[in-house]
Amino acid sequence: MSSIKIFFIVGKLLFAFSICNALAENPSKIIAAKVNDHIITAQDVLDALNRLPKKIRERALSDIYPNIVNELINQHLITKQAYKDKLDLNTEVAYLLKKNKDQIIAKYWLNNFLTNQIRKETIDKYYNNYVKNFKSSKEFNASHILLKSKKEALEIIKKLKNKSKFSELAREYSIGPSGKNEGKLGWFQSGQMVNAFEKATFALKKGTITDAPVKTKFGYHVIMLNDIRNSKPKELNIVKQQIVDRIRKFSLSNLEKEIRKNQNITIVDFEDVSKKVNN
Hints:
This protein is an alpha+beta fold. Among the domains are: 3-85, no CATH class; 138-230, Chitinase A, domain 3, CATH 3.10.50. It is 55% helix and 14% strand. The protein has helices at residues 3-16, 42-51, 54-57, 61-84, 91-117, 120-132, 150-161, 166-173, 195-202, 236-260, 270-278, and strands spanning 31-35, 38-41, 138-147, 184-188, 214-216, 219-230. A four-stranded antiparallel β-sheet has the order 4-3-6-5. The protein has a two-stranded antiparallel ribbon with strand order 1-2. α6 (120-132) packs across α10 (236-260). The radius of gyration is 30 Å and the shape is elongated. The two termini are 41 Å apart.
């Protein structure tokens, strides 16, 4: 979950608790409930909330808050009883506890590792390199009206030649999703549309419309070229997530190579493992 989303949920949680200056307080310091000397914090409630199915999380927090708190109370009391019965000494339980502990430690270490890799200076370095190596190309802005048949498309072209407005015809007749938006497709470059559509669009002059319907696997298109421009590097805020994803992927790939170096690793074939499991 992104930090922005977590902050938003924390904000909702603290607002629901009606605590003054809530945004300045640490949820782990806010008491939501007490069982004898055991304290259940707002952070505990938040963690439990995030573990719930999406459908339940979407409900008003004020509705599910009592259930969450009561579940946490029950969980604490059951855990206390389990320790009293020395269940933590059970071989199977001890194995699961160690396994979960290892997974938690690995998760937090990896999160810290990636946080150190995805720093502002690293993102800026990637972005500056992107701008430096950017190669400009032609971008086209077009609108289209998509019809089921060639006959319908020819009728639309006839209407356009008789001064009907493209935007109005697109809203009324286009069967494509862009019809609701007057047929506007926005900016695109070569390779982003199907070949026949691109070929017809690139042959147009600014402000002109195709003389004949353009057939693709989607139907018959009547295309209008709105504008042409030379592409420019995208702003950092637009490509930042792509840069973060690239750094993350590159860092994880390098990490895997580094931690596996000089390690004696054996992976048994699936079929061999499957045979032993099923025997």
